[in-house]
Amino acid sequence: MARKPPTTPRKNASQERSRATVDALVEATARILVKEGFEKASTNHIAEIAGVSVGSLYQYFPSKEALVAAVIERHNEEIMNVVRAAFAEVADLPIEKAVRRLVTVAIEAHHIDPNLHRVLAEQIPRSGHLAEVEAYSHEIHALVRTYLERHRKEMRKLDPALAAFMCVSTIEAIAHNTVLNGEMLSEKMVKVLVDETTRLVVGYLK
Amino acid sequence: MARKPPTTPRKNASQERSRATVDALVEATARILVKEGFEKASTNHIAEIAGVSVGSLYQYFPSKEALVAAVIERHNEEIMNVVRAAFAEVADLPIEKAVRRLVTVAIEAHHIDPNLHRVLAEQIPRSGHLAEVEAYSHEIHALVRTYLERHRKEMRKLDPALAAFMCVSTIEAIAHNTVLNGEMLSEKMVKVLVDETTRLVVGYLK
Amino acid sequence: MARKPPTTPRKNASQERSRATVDALVEATARILVKEGFEKASTNHIAEIAGVSVGSLYQYFPSKEALVAAVIERHNEEIMNVVRAAFAEVADLPIEKAVRRLVTVAIEAHHIDPNLHRVLAEQIPRSGHLAEVEAYSHEIHALVRTYLERHRKEMRKLDPALAAFMCVSTIEAIAHNTVLNGEMLSEKMVKVLVDETTRLVVGYLK
Amino acid sequence: MARKPPTTPRKNASQERSRATVDALVEATARILVKEGFEKASTNHIAEIAGVSVGSLYQYFPSKEALVAAVIERHNEEIMNVVRAAFAEVADLPIEKAVRRLVTVAIEAHHIDPNLHRVLAEQIPRSGHLAEVEAYSHEIHALVRTYLERHRKEMRKLDPALAAFMCVSTIEAIAHNTVLNGEMLSEKMVKVLVDETTRLVVGYLK
DNA sequence: AATGAATGAGCCTTCATTCAT
DNA sequence: CATGAATGAAGGCTCATTCAT
C-alpha cells in the first residue's frame, strides 16, 4: 500500500463506463420527465432514450423510483450548492443586503432548470422521497435561522425558528410562483420582484 | 321532514338516481385518494367503493381523468365558497382587519380537508387540470386586487397587480406550509401565525 | 324470500360463463403442463390456450401459482374420490381381499392422467402447496390406519400408524413406479404386479 | 502433508485452477439450491457465491442446465459409491442379513444431504436429466437383481427382474419417506423402520 | 483466461375501457 | 340504464447469455 506505484491512478475503463451509463440514465430520466411527463417515464423508455438496455438500468438502479430519486437528488444538490454559497457569501452582510441577495439567488436557483423543477415539485410527494427533500428544507431553515441569530441585533425581538419559517415560506413561494408564471421572467420584472420581496421581508424583520 | 308537502315536484326518479350515483362516485374517488393514495384509485376500485358497477361509472364519466377533475372541482368550489364569503365580509374593513381575517380564512380553508388538499396538490398537475385550477387562482388574485384598489388610500403607492401577487403568494404559502407541518396546527400556534402573517403583509402594504 | 317463484333456479348466464372460463383456464394449464412443461406455462400462454385474455385469468386466479394449485387440487380430488370410494367398498372385507382391491385402485388412480400426475409430482414441491398435498397424504394414512384397526384381529400385533406408513409407502411407490415405467402397463403385467404387491403387503401384516 | 515429496508432479497450475473453479461453481450451485432454493439459483448469483465471474462460469459450463447436471451427477455419484460398496459387502451374506444392511444403507444414503436430495428430487425432472438419473436407477436394479440371482436358492421361485423392481421400489420409498418426515429420524425410529422394512422384504422374498 | 458490463427476450401483473347480457 | 366479465396494451423487472476489455 505504501509503495503504490507512482503511476497515475487511472480509474479502470469499466468504472468510467459505469459512470457514463449512470449519468446517461439520470439524464434521460430528467429529459423524459420534462419533455414527456411522468406517465411516459417507463423504465423501458428511459433505457431507450439513454441508449442503454433495460437490463443495464436495473444494474445501476434497483427500481424506477430509485432513478427518479437520483434525478431529484441531482437537482436538489445543484440548487443547494448555489444556496449554500449564497449563505456563505452573505453571512456578515446586514439584513437588507443579505435578504436582497438571498431573494435574488432564490429566484435564480428556481431558474436552474425551471421545467424540471416544476415536474419534480409535482412528482416528489408521490414517491417516498419526502424525507430527503425535507432534509434540504430543514437545511435551508437552519441556514436562515443561523443567519438571523447572528444578526439578532439588527432586528426586532423575534423567535428565530418562527422568523425562519416566515422568511423561507415567503421567499420560496415568490420565487416558485415567479418561475411558474413565465410572464414574470423579464429582467425588469425580476428586478422589481426582488425589490418588493426584499421590502416585504426586511419590513417584517425590522 | 315530516311536513314535507305531499306534492313535492319530485324530479323524475331516474334524475335523482343519476345525481346520487354521480355523487357516490365523486365521493368514493375522494375517499380513496385520501385514504389509499392515487395508485389505488383505479376505476374498478372507485366503482366498487361507490357501490356501483364500472359500467355505470363510464355512463357518467367518460374517463378516469374526468372523475378526478370532478373531485378537484368540488374541492375547489368548497374552498372558493369560503374564500368568496370572506372577501364579501371584508370588503369594507380597513386593511389590518381585512388581512387578519383573510389570513385566518386561508389557513382554515386549507384545513377543510387537508389530506385531500395535499393529494390533489400532488395530482392536479399530472392530470392536466392546471388550467381549471388556475382559473381559481386568477379569481383569487382578482378578488385581492379589487380589495386593494378599493383601499388604495390606506396604502402606499403600489401596483395593484403586483401587490396582489405578493400578498396571495405569501399568504397561500404560509397557509400551505402550516397545514403541511402537522406540528404547527395547535390553536396557539395558528394564532401566532395569523399575527405574524398579518404583520408581514400589512407592513408590506403600508 | 319465502315466496320464491317456483321456476327452475337457473344459474344466471354470467355464472355459467365464469365457470366455463375457470374450467378452460385450469384445463389449459394442465394441458400445457403436460405437453410443454412447466417452463412454458406462462400466464399469457395459458390464457391464450384457454382462449381467454390474461386479464380474465387474473380475474379468477390471483396469481400463476393459484392456477397451478387449482390443477393440483382438481387432480388430487379426482384421485381421492376413487380412493375414498375404494376404502368404503373395502371396509368390511378381509385383509387379503381388501389389499388386493386397494392395490388395484392405487395403480388405476395413478393412471387417471399419468402424464399430469408425473408433472405434478415434479412441480408440487416447488409451489408452497405441500400443505394441501400433505393433507391428502394424511387422509390416506388415516384411511389405512382406520381399516387396519378394524381388522386388527386378522393381523399380528403391530402399531397401526407404523403399519399404515409401511403400507402406504409401499403401495404408492409401486403404483407410482409402475406408471412411470410405461413398459409395465400391459394388462398382464399389471395383474402380476397386483398379485405381487398384495403378497408383499399381506405377508407383512400377517 | 509435511512429507509430501518435493517433486510432486504438479499438474500445470492452470489445470489446477480450472479444477478449483469448477468445484467452486458446483459447490456454490449445490449450496444455493439447498439454502436459497431453485428460484435463487441464477447464474450470476452462483458465480458470485463461487467467487468467480459469470464469464468464467460460462467458460466451464455451457449453460445453467449443465451446472445443475453437474450437481446432480456429483450427488448421485456420492450416493452410488455408498450403495456399490454396500452391495460388494453384502454379496455373500444370506438374504436376511443382506436386506437388513441394504435397507440401512438406503436410509443412510438418503441422509447424506437430505436437503440437497429433496431439492434435486424436485428439480431433476424439470432439467431433462431424467435419463442420467435413470441410469443410476438401472444400475441399482441390476445390482439387486444380481444379488437375488446369486441367492436364488434361499428364496421362493420368483422372476428376478420383478423381484428387483419390488424390492427397490419398496426400500427406496420407505427410505425416501423416512427422510421427508423429519419426525421419523430419531435413532430409535430408524431402528424400528429398518426392522420392519427388512421383515417386509424378506417376508416377500421367502 | 478472467472479468463484469451490457443485452433483450420474456415473464407476471395491472387497469382503463368496452360490450354482451 | 345497469352490470361485471372480458379485453389487451403496457409496465416493471429478471436472468441466461454474450462480448469488449
Automatic annotation (TrEMBL), chains A, B, C, D:
PANTHER family: HTH-TYPE TRANSCRIPTIONAL REGULATOR RUTR, HTH-TYPE TRANSCRIPTIONAL REGULATOR UIDR. SUPFAM superfamilies: Homeodomain-like (SSF46689), Tetracyclin repressor-like, C-terminal domain (SSF48498). Residues 42-61 bind DNA. Pfam families: TetR_C_15, TetR_N. Keywords: DNA-binding. The keyword Isomerase does not apply. It comes from Bradyrhizobium diversitatis. Transmembrane segments: none annotated. Residues 19-79 form the HTH tetR-type domain. This is TetR family transcriptional regulator.
